[in-house]
Amino acid sequence: MNYEPVIGLEVHVQLKTWSKLFCSCSTEFGAEGNSHTCPVCLGWPGSLPVLNEAALKLGIRVGLALNCKVAERLKFDRKNYFYPDLPKAYQISQFDMPVNGKGELLIETKTADGKMIERKIGITRAHLEEDAGKLLHEGITDGSLVDYNRGGIPLLEIVSEPDLRSPQEAYDYLTALKAILQYVEVSDCDMEKGSLRCDANVSVRPVGQEKFGTKVEIKNLNSFKMVQKAIQYEIERQTEAIEGGETIVQETRLWDDGKGTTFSMRSKEEAHDYRYFPEPDLVPFTLSLELVKSIEATLPELPMARAKRFIKEFGIPEYDAYVLVQEKKLAEYFEACVREGAGAKTASNWIQTELLAMLNAKNIAIEDCPVASKEFAGLLKLVEAGTVSGKTAKDVLQEMAATGKAADVIVKEKGLTQVSDTGLIEKAVEKAIAANPVAVAEFKAGKQKALGALVGAIMKETQGKANPKIVNEILQKKLQG
Ligand SMILES: [Zn+2]
To answer: 232 falls in which pLDDT band (50, 70, 90)?
Structure first.
């Protein structure tokens, strides 16, 4: 029997505010333990929470970007559970009246046979809640330490519908979601700092069956790759179990990245009963339509819309467009290059290969790129005009990054101008033909590969500066003539 997975994702994103969700403590990351705490976020009796308006606005911003129905009236609730990182023994969250209701996210994904398709993934809700503190175990032998600096930092929990059907789709959903969160500037989305976290709900069912199988929740997923791997593992584990006659139990499992497996953390019987009830210290309130409209008016062009515009306006391939828009700064860099006169296809290719490779090697982000988009466009224009060969241009790029000089200056100083003088090239071609009779004979016998040796000899003769297009033309003519 064939089985298909049913996957839903819960993403927690820390909203980028200066102060916490219900008090004025700082949200600064990496401060000394428990230095950003007060009676409110420590849950002292008699202290009262006050909602942070900036956090509410960021939450609405995300909702609008995900086409969610923003609530007219909303409420906060207490989610009760006992754990040392939660000083009040309840978390202020939202239960039945979340700030954002149903929405959707369009994603670009690849099918198993490598075809690019567009999929619409439903968003169930996106609600506000406060983060918990953090337990520290490392290097401590007699117990654990707790740091409440994180306690009370605003989170938005974005819950997807169980619409995802493969680990690849889950990965692409997360990538698309992260891009949107960065475009609307609500979070730094740094998984290493924990400002973006993801849990996955996975079940399998026989293909054609409508009813969902029993779902398992996987936690402890610290990167998108881990999410993909954990889901893949879980699909195989569940399918094998069902085929072996076992019943899947509803449970929470943790991912062990070292072993590449999931293991049981708690079963349904041990699951929390959160006993939600309305937070009595925060009354339900109505959102004004003007506020929502004013936030909507400030939304930027979103990644999917930008990709579609790139394809239409610049004629670049679909795949290129989606890679370029994943990162806002990269998309802006590309667009700036084209506005400076570089050809769109050339700019797209060079950014995705040479420029990103250079940045990766130096471990720097595109916003800190040592070669400004205007300068990079200058280099690309030299390539397109045939002034320098592609090979030379790669070296020039490195030189530009190291010295900050413009491409044309480097080319002039070092005498790197490509030789397009047909007379000179013709001489080099004749010399190469005379010196390589074996390659010539092989080519004439139908071996296209033999051309490589001849081109190599010509390039050596011209110190790599001959225009490859002209070399090819003359060489073909001479050999056939
Ligand atoms: Zn506080």
So the answer is: very high
